[in-house]
Amino acid sequence: MATTRAPDAGRRSDRSRRAIHDAALALVTEEGYRRTTIEGIAARAGVGKQTIYRWWPSKAAVLMDAFLDLAGRTAEESGGAPEPDGAAPSGGSAPGLPDTGDLAADLRTVLRATVDELNNPVLEAVTRALTAEGIVDPKLGAEFVQRLLDPQLALYVTRLRAAQEAGHVRADVDPRIALELLIGPLMHRWLLRTLPLTHAYADEVVDYAVGGLTPRA
């Protein structure tokens, strides 16, 4: 007698989660964050809204997980490309910024990747939605920083401290402030759309910043 295989609950849950993620991302892109609802996400994903509430406490939590999942998939599809803020593999298994011994060249690589991520239409709408909502929703903003930004910014701190130890950055430089000199201008131009966000601009930001970070003769 042929045996009947029991349904794989884990695989079904994975499919449902992916469907919910995809539905949330699509609706935010099409309708905007404020007009996106749990009910709409559930209908789009083909699940009951109680399924969503069983896994996430809010719409913001759904979108946050969906965004992190999307960022991971995008990195895999591009062959290990940097995460949304530009972090890239550095030879070992742990993620990190590149360290070739040439700080300016490494930072240009990272900031160019950041430009590509911010200009990626697949990621842009959701990134803008989370960024904008994080400004008016302190709880969401704190979660966005804690779950997405802080782990990535820590990679900049690690790279800049390594540059300090190598004598390429002044010992009195605060790495946390230094990384804001690099990332801040890109985010300002991207958020406000003041001028095009390009690789050339990223290179200039690095040149300006590194000029102020390196030891004085």
Instruction: Write down the overall geometry.
Output: elongated
Strand order of the largest sheet: 1-2
Q: Tell me the β content.
A: under 5%
What's the helix count?
A: 9
What is the structural class?
Answer: mainly alpha
Number of strands: 2
What is the typical, i.e. mean, pLDDT? 85
N- to C-terminal distance: 85 Å
Parts with pLDDT < 50 across at least 5 consecutive residues: 80-94
Helix-strand pattern, N to C?
HHHHEEHHHHH
Query: Sheet bearing the most strands, described?
Result: 2 strands, antiparallel
Q: What percent of the residues sit in helical stretches (DSSP H or I)?
A: 55-70%
Radius of gyration, in Å, reads 20 Å
Quick summary:
The chain has 217 residues and is mainly alpha-helical.
Molecular structure report:
The chain has helices at residues 9-31, 38-45, 49-55, 59-77, 103-119, 121-136, 138-165, 175-192, 199-213; strands at residues 88-89, 95-96. It is 70% helix and 2% strand. Helix 1 (9-31) packs across helix 2 (38-45). It is an all-alpha fold and 217 residues long. Strands 1-2 form a two-stranded antiparallel ribbon.
Main attributes?
single chain; mainly alpha; two-stranded antiparallel sheet; 217 residues; 2 strands
Helix-strand blueprint:
Elements (H helix, E strand, L loop, with lengths): L8 H23 L6 H8 L3 H7 L3 H19 L10 E2 L5 E2 L6 H17 L1 H16 L1 H28 L9 H18 L6 H15 L4
Antiparallel strand pairs: 1-2
Helix pairs in contact: 1-2, 1-4, 2-3, 4-6, 4-7, 5-8, 5-9, 6-7, 7-8, 8-9
